[in-house]
Write a structure and sequence with these properties.
single chain; 202 residues; alpha+beta; 5-stranded antiparallel β-sheet; two-stranded antiparallel sheet; 6 helices; 9 strands; elongated
Length: 202
C-alpha cells in the first residue's frame, strides 16, 4: 500500500471509522454525560470499548474510504470493474463482511429519480456522487467513495456454548488470552492501502 500510494501521485486517499458498535461517529465524538446505551445519550469511543471489554464481548464497525483526484477512466466495464477490484481486495481483509459504494444499500430504497446522479458540468462532476465516483465499472472523475463493514472480533472471553467435535456434544466454551474488543479500530490504514493498490493497478 505504501508503494502503491507513491505510484498514484496526486490521488488522495483517506479512510475513517464512521460507526462503532452500531453508534454513528457523530455520537461517539460527543462529550460523555449519560449512561452508555441510554436513548439519545452522548458517548465516547473509549467508553464504548471499555464497557465492551468489561462485558467480555466485542463490537464491529464501519470504515468509509474517500479517494480524491481520481482520474476519469480507471477500471473496466465488466469483470475487472473498479468496484470489483476494490471489493476483491476489501474481502482479503480479515473480518470484512460487506462493502458498498456511494449510496450503497440505501439505493435499493430509492426511486430512479432519487438515485440518478445528474452531471452538473463538462468535467463530469455530478450533483450528489451517489454512484461513489464509479459508473459502469469505470471511474467518472468524482471522488471514489466506499464503505466496508467489519464484524465483531469472534474470539471473546464471554461464555458461549458450542459443539465440541472431540467429545461430540455441546459444551461451555471460553476463549482465553487477550483479544481486541474491536478490530475495526485497526482497519482504516489497511483500507487506505487496498484502495491505493486497486488504483495503482489501473
Amino acid at each position: 500500500g505504501v508503494v502503491a500510494k507513491k505510484m498514484i501521485g496526486p490521488i488522495e486517499i483517506r479512510a475513517r471509522i464512521t460507526e462503532l458498535g452500531g453508534i454513528p461517529r457523530e455520537r461517539l465524538n460527543c462529550k460523555p454525560g449519560k449512561e452508555l446505551g441510554a436513548e439519545g445519550a452522548p458517548t465516547l469511543w473509549d467508553e464504548l470499548i471499555d464497557r465492551t471489554l468489561r462485558e467480555l464481548d466485542s463490537v464491529g464497525g464501519v470504515i468509509e474510504c474517500t479517494c480524491d483526484k481520481v482520474p476519469v477512466g480507471l477500471g473496466e466495464p465488466f469483470f475487472d470493474s473498479l468496484e470489483s477490484q476494490l471489493a476483491h481486495l476489501a474481502f482479503s481483509i480479515p473480518a470484512v463482511r460487506g462493502i458498498e459504494f456511494g449510496d450503497g444499500f440505501a439505493a435499493a430504497r430509492m426511486k430512479g429519480s432519487e438515485h440518478n446522479d445528474c452531471f452538473v458540468n463538462g468535467e463530469g462532476k455530478t450533483a450528489t456522487n451517489g454512484a461513489g465516483g464509479i459508473n459502469g465499472g469505470i471511474s467518472n472523475g468524482n471522488p471514489v467513495v466506499f464503505r466496508i463493514a467489519v464484524k465483531p472480533t469472534s474470539s471473546i472471553a464471554k461464555k458461549q456454548y458450542t459443539f465440541n467435535f472431540a467429545t461430540e456434544r455441546m459444551e461451555e466454551f471460553v476463549v482465553k488470552g487477550r483479544h481486541d474488543a474491536c478490530i475495526a479500530l485497526r482497519c482504516p490504514v489497511v483500507v487506505e492501502a487496498i484502495a491505493a493498490i486497486a488504483l495503482a493497478n489501473n
